[in-house]
Design a protein that fits this description.
Two copies of one chain form a homodimer. Chain A is an alpha/beta fold. Chain A has helices at about 45-50, 75-85, 100-105, 115-130, 145-160, 175-190, 205-210, and strands spanning about 1-15, 15-30, 35, 60-65, 65-70, 85-90, 165, 195-200, 210-215, 220. In chain A, the strands form two sheets. Chain A has a six-stranded mixed sheet with strand order 6-7-8-3-9-10, with helices on both faces. The model of chain A has no long low-confidence stretch (mean pLDDT about 95). The structure holds adenosine-5'-triphosphate (2 copies) and magnesium ion (2 copies). One adenosine-5'-triphosphate (ATP) sits at the interface of chains A and B.
């Protein structure tokens, strides 16, 4: 459902070039609970951003479903992201002027097939499962670090996307809260067939994952191909 | 060296009041490696901000050394923070227009007793010990999440403050990098007598700590008094 083909990503730094990813290939089967593990600075967020279509590779191609992302217009990309992808950012990226509830609701607003009542029920449900019902009206700067992270999680899950990209979703959570979030995601993965791709340092995520790939200095260890189980 | 006396902290939320800390008392001996542990939203960052003099309590007093912080003028507080405290924020709070090097150097600029050469040596040293020598010229948005966290750590340590307040300093770090940072802090604690106060979810911090206090729903478990060992 996701394929990354010989992808490299360079950044310009002054007059020099910094290669953050080098010839990365990865095939991810539908319904995977995949963990991308590696040291700080190894390229995990960069890779997730390429898969999530919020950045473009310097070389190589990214495919979501069978479609090559690089061939899409900005509008088509926006549609694809809105309909198929849920993103939990490492820095949360919540909208500061909106409450927790409004932040979770935001990506649902443009989906015409969801009625107003269903939208409210979904937002209530996901705020509840991450333990934030009582904080629904707090704005991001009125929330703790781990609470903001949970709003970002609820926001990504509430749209029931086919693919969830989670960049260190448990980093700011105590172990009990973090476990609750992971069990929720595992449950959604098993009951809905949602594909989860994590960037993580958390060994519990790696244990729950049905597949772990390792990245170091911008290069993937191993072939990146799907193996069975 | 730090004393918190019957401190409460309320936030105004619309027309309601939210009590984030309730009657918290804590005495911290000089040279402690103290961990404050508790669930997401329990009040750890709020307590650290009060100790770090970047917020004021609604009730109660905070003492740094023997001096009551609430009686100081804004200028005196700024001096106290600059000379005695190092703060590693949960959201890093780096200056976006400055490079990693310049961010680490920034709090040292106004200290007249440090020569230009010594300042540069200190910045080089601390960038090196957190593994960021090769990234000295990157700006925060050209760094990974864990790299930004390490810049924030280097910045707090480079001033050799008497008290370091570290709000989840390992949250965005892989286990190897995180261990390196903790060993560095433990070493500084043992050789310089620097007091460390952590807010953390990381069990390794709790294991390394010579004292752990637990907080839940804004209340400290236990008396908060110093016990021996
Ligand atoms: N805009 C940029 N310009 C230059 N270098 C960059 C830029 N963005 C990221 N980098 C570099 O690319 C590398 C990979 O960054 P990335 O954010 O993917 O790491 P990561 O594996 O997610 O790390 P962490 O675990 O710390 O979050 C890092 O070394 C970083 O310094
Ligand atoms: N400005 C504010 N207005 C209202 N409530 C607030 C405000 N700031 C924080 N809070 C609330 O105070 C409580 C404590 O927040 P704090 O940031 O201290 O938690 P924490 O223990 O650091 O959590 P985490 O582990 O998630 O970082 C939270 O429930 C939060 O929602
Ligand atoms: Mg990252
Ligand atoms: Mg906090």
């Amino acid at each position: 459902v996701v394929r990354v083909d010989h992808v490299s990503k360079d950044y310009r730094l002054g007059r020099q070039t910094f290669r953050a990813l080098h010839d990365v290939s990865l095939a991810v089967a539908k319904g995977r609970f995949l963990a991308i593990a590696g040291p700080s600075g190894s390229g995990k967020s960069t890779l997730l951003n390429l898969i999530g279509c919020i950045d473009t590779p310097t070389e190589g191609q990214v495919y979501i479903g069978k479609e090559e992302v690089g061939r899409k217009t900005p509008d088509e990309l926006a549609d694809l992201r809105a309909s198929a992808l849920g993103f939990i950012f490492q820095t949360f990226n919540l909208l500061p002027v909106l409450s927790a509830r409004e932040n979770v609701e935001y990506p649902l607003l443009h989906r015409k097939e969801i009625s107003r009542k269903e939208r409210r029920d979904r937002v209530d449900h996901y705020l509840g499962v991450v333990g934030l019902s009582r904080y629904a009206h707090h704005r991001p700067n009125e929330l703790s670090g781990g609470q903001r992270q949970r709003v970002a999680i609820a926001r990504a899950l509430a749209g029931s996307p086919a693919i969830v990209l989670a960049d260190e979703p448990t980093a700011n959570l105590d172990s009990k809260t973090g476990e609750g979030v992971l069990r929720l995601m595992k449950k959604i993965n098993e009951s809905e067939g949602t594909t989860f791709i994590f960037s993580t340092h958390d060994f519990r995520v790696m244990e729950m994952a049905d597949r772990v790939v390792n990245i170091s200095d911008g290069r993937l260890a191993g072939t990146g191909k799907e193996e069975t189980g």
